[in-house]
Amino acid sequence: MDHHLILRVITKILVAPILLYGLYVQFHGDFGPGGGFQAGVIFAVGFILYGIVFGLRRLRQIFPDYVVHRLVALGVLIYAGTGIVNMALGGNFLDYNVLAEKGYQGQHWGIIAVELGVGVTVFGVMMAIFYSFAGRPPSLDDKEW
Amino acid sequence: MELVLTSLLFFALVATAIAIALVRRLFAVVMLAGVFSLLAAMLFVLMDAVDVAFTEAAVGAGISTVLMLGTIALTARSEKQPASYSLVPLVIVVLTGLVLIYGTLDMPNFGSPDAPVQQHVGPDYIRKTPEDIHVPNVVTAVLASYRGYDTLGEVTVVFTAGLGVILLISGLGRRPRRRKREED
Predict the structure, then answer these.
(1) Which residues of B touch A128 (CB under 8 A)?
(2) Does residue B140 lie in a domain region?
(3) B24 domain residue, yes or no
(4) Backbone angles phi and psi of B175, in degrees to 5
(5) Are the CB atoms for A110 and B182 separated by under 8 Å?
(6) Is residue B105 part of a domain?
(7) Residue B175 lies in a domain
């Protein structure tokens, strides 16, 4: 998309706020609407927009395939790991009350941890699916759209 | 006012759906599907389901559109003209729609406090969340804490789905890291 000057300029302006908004949704999910799932999607959308306009090659320099594939698994590990940590601290699986002195503080930590897990997995899966689709040689020319 | 907005949005939703069925250019179909998702998201906002609206806008209008465009780029740009038109699908769709409308007659009114869904565990969650979890967004409290097991299952589903896509169409043998090592 080298000849789309307006698209390139607008994308450069948009990507940073999209990523920032993704982080906001991720860590503000317990106070406002949103949470890990939406944040993971929004964060991925920021990078996918960059990849569409500036080329998949440059996106892969930031997030190589093996990093994305590991992120997919890492999120589930963070989620299930939170549960295991709770068990190690003497509670039940995914019973966050044992994470801090007061029960509700533990709940806050637990929710942040599992939401992060959700966000990381969703981000990884969205990026992996995008790579899988966009990484194949296109049969259509740029002008044919 | 809300009734007018809801009716307008539903009207636009139906119009978009009909347009999707009629248009043959797949690029336009994908864009219309994105419009459909945004309209649905607005309807969810009117129904006070902000979290659902958020997901619909991000996934339905954002990611799906990109993935559908990616699919079009790999396949074809316009739908094939069907050889002949048959009435059977129309009859089936109309009948199913009538059955669904008949089913809604038995359902409680939207937002009715007597609805079974409002009387089961919902009130407990709303009452106990401020004491147990101190989180203003009850949806997050239910998803991440009260129903943490379910969400773990959902994350595993997303994980498995991603794994399936990676295995099926990206081809793990073509990992760039391994290729780089071979080039060295």
Answers:
(1) 162, 165-166, 170
(2) no
(3) yes
(4) -65, 130
(5) no
(6) no
(7) no
Q: How many other CB atoms are there within 10 angstroms of residue A88's CB atom?
A: 9
Q: For residue A26, what are the contacts with CB-CB under 8 A and spacing of at least 6? A: A34, A35, A36, A39, A40, A43, A115, A116, A119
Which ipTM score applies to this complex? 0.86
Q: Which amino acid is at B101?
A: I
State which residues form the domain around B40: 1-80
The domain that holds B69 is classified in CATH as 1.20.120.1200
Q: How far is CA B175 from CA A61, A64, A127, A132, B180, in A?
A: 13, 9, 15, 12, 9
CB contact under 8 A, A108 and B134: yes
Distance from CA of residue B33 to its chain's centroid? 11
Question: What is the three-class DSSP state of B80?
Answer: coil
Q: Residues A14-72: pLDDT tens digits? A: 999 999 999 999 988 778 887 888 999 999 999 999 998 888 889 999 999 899 999 99
Residue of B66, B149, B177 with shortest CB distance to A66: B177
